[in-house]
Write a structure and sequence with these properties.
The chain is α/β, with parallel strands linked by helices. Helix content is 43%, strand content 15%. The chain has 21 helices and 15 strands. Helix 7 links the parallel strand 6 and strand 7. Helix 3 packs across helix 18 and helix 11 crosses helix 17. The longest helix has 22 residues. It binds 1,6-di-O-phosphono-beta-D-fructofuranose. 1,6-di-O-phosphono-beta-D-fructofuranose (FBP) binds next to loops.
């Protein structure tokens, strides 16, 4: 294998831990708070989770531990999309286990939740672990999106875990995977099994957060990676002065990534899906917002600029949202009929099934977008927004808007748009120092939760705006973060997805400065993630986290 100079250097990096966790495990005590309630729908959640509802928040502090530290066997899975730092969660868990008792064992299930069902796993050894420390990606044990939902599946997981004599399972995943983790923890208890389940908050999307989970891991690195590229493109635009760059950014429904990248790079236009929905902006309104900046800048002779588009945008534009809902219902109700239609004829077939309003919207979209809207949904029922080329849709529509404006004598500029999509390139970067430290601490904390007998908890680090030594480690009951939501026509207990809050500090700051960014050249150039050098260059957290935690 060829190892790059950076990879070699990163092997030697020692992730920072909160100082309370730096001592011997015998001197770290679990301090429990009082009973908790779920964020909403308390009665329904309590009924669905009779064994795990209401557990206290736990924090780890200096003090004599009551844990026994007998040898234990723990399984771990990486679930869903990749996020930088996953390997370090495993490293923190592994080091904690071995530090407390060298006889303890860690098993990595392969390919995500399906590895649990198929009993495909490997044992993590020192040499294997050392190959992956501080590296990006999930390739050590891979990941997958299989959804665990039926009781047959849960039985199979239990059976496979029992065959291996597992004491605990750590699920590293996003909101859906941690919801699965909560259900699994409850299921094991209901079946009188003592196998514990602990979750860790993963996703570049940044939408698994609340007052206790300050950020999900991977968000920091992914946003910094995209911001580097956006900054570079902005500088290219400033140099060549001839292109408008339409950049779609990954992140699913939430616009956290787009907002963070905007704060880092100050582009001319950034669309925030949550605002589009709140203001009920139509596609025409969105196009007009972009065209406003293009036209204002053209007056100054600047026929170039940067537009950031969150990938989930189309789902928040009222008329397209309604169309997608109709398409979802139709595609599941008439799945067989739809499946039998020749690919080329699908849009026409779909069009004929829709009501007049949705049919009109569907017909108004370019043909490639019509196809992209009827692609298969993912196993969790989500539209695969990464595959919809919103950047092209918008640049085409802005072009026609400008043509009209030109005909009316309102615009004299030139408009040459280029489309980009930044997504997969940010998910497996070498984790930033923040993510490397945060993930290692999350993994180490998940070990402490196991050692202290907890189940149905998510590993948590708080006060993340401070240096790592001052972070507060602990566990939050998963049921606390749940509410009831309609999924596939049924009410289900799920962890609440955190979208951008329009009255939150990050958005408020952005809203305050964006008109200036729209018409000026205020671009900022963050450059590549730095791993070595002054703390203010290497260890800074995301601007979102900084603003959210500011007084
Ligand atoms: P999760 O962390 O929620 O699994 O999603 C991360 C993500 O990168 C989303 O931003 C994106 O929409 C999706 O995965 C893409 O899915 P896939 O990797 O299956 O193409």
């Amino acid at each position: 294998k060829s190892i790059t100079a950076l990879q070699k250097a990163r092997y030697a990096y020692l992730p920072k831990l909160p100082s309370a966790l730096m001592q011997d495990v015998k001197n770290v005590v679990a301090v429990k708070g009082s009973a908790t309630e779920s964020f909403a729908d308390q009665q329904a959640i309590k009924q669905l989770f009779p064994h795990t509802y209401g557990q206290p928040i736990v924090s780890f502090e200096s003090g004599a531990s009551s844990a026994t530290f007998n040898p234990i066997k723990v399984g771990v899975i990486l679930s869903g999309g990749q996020a930088p730092g996953g390997h370090n969660v495993i490293a923190g868990l592994y080091d904690g286990l071995k530090k407390a008792n060298p006889q303890s064992q860690l098993f990595g299930f392969l390919g995500g939740p399906s590895g649990l069902l198929e009993a495909k796993y490997l044992e993590v050894t020192d040499s294997l672990m050392d190959e992956y420390r501080n590296t990006g990606g999930f390739d050590m044990i891979q990941s997958g999106r299989t959804k665990l939902e039926s009781s047959e599946q849960f039985d199979l997981v239990l059976e496979n875990a029992q065959k291996l004599s597992l004491d605990a399972l750590v699920v590293i995943g996003g909101d859906d995977s941690n919801t699965n983790g909560a259900v699994l923890a409850e299921y094991f208890k209901a079946k009188n099994s003592s196998i514990q389940v602990i979750g860790c908050p993963k996703t570049i999307d940044g939408d698994l957060k609340n007052q206790f989970i300050e950020t999900s891991f991977g968000f920091d690195t992914a946003a910094k990676t995209y911001s580097e590229l956006i900054g570079n493109i902005a500088r290219d635009a400033m140099s060549a002065r001839k292109y408008w760059h339409f950049i779609k950014l990954m992140g699913r429904s939430a616009s956290h990534i787009a907002l963070e990248c905007a704060l880092q790079t100050r582009p001319n236009v950034t669309l925030i899906s949550e605002e589009v929905e709140a203001k009920q902006m139509t596609l025409a309104d969105v196009v007009q917002e972009i065209a406003h900046s293009v036209m204002k800048r053209a007056e100054k002779g600047w026929n170039f600029g940067i537009v950031l588009i969150p990938e989930g945008l189309v789902e928040f534009i009222p008329e397209i949202k309604a169309l997608i809902a109709k398409l979802n219902d139709m595609m599941s109700e008439k799945a067989d009929e739809f499946g039998a239609i020749e690919l080329e004829k699908q849009p026409e077939w779909v069009h004929a099934q829709l009501d007049a309003k949705s049919a009109e919207v569907y017909a108004s979209l370019p043909r490639d977008i019509q196809f992209q809207l009827i692609l298969d949904r993912d196993p969790h029922g989500n539209v695969q927004v990464s595959l919809i080329e919103t950047e092209k849709l918008l640049s085409k529509m802005v072009a026609s808007y400008l043509e009209k404006a030109k005909a009316e004598g309102k615009y004299k500029g030139k408009f040459a748009p280029l489309g980009h999509f930044f997504g997969y390139e940010g998910r497996c970067a070498f984790p930033s120092n923040f993510d490397a430290d945060y993930c290692y601490s999350l993994g180490y904390t998940s070990f402490l939760l196991i050692a202290n007998g907890m189940t149905g908890y998510i590993s948590s680090l708080r006060e993340l705006q401070r240096p790592a030594s001052e972070w507060v480690a602990g566990g939050i009951p998963l049921t606390m973060m749940m509410n009831m939501e309609r999924r596939h026509g049924e009410m289900k207990p799920v962890i609440r997805k955190a979208l951008v809050e329009l009255n939150g500090k990050p958005f408020q700051y952005f809203a305050h400065v964006r008109e200036k960014w729209a018409v000026e050249n205020d671009f900022a150039y963050p450059g590549a993630i730095q791993y070595y050098g002054p703390t203010e260059v290497c260890d800074q957290t995301s601007i979102t986290l900084g603003l959210e935690k500011s007084k």
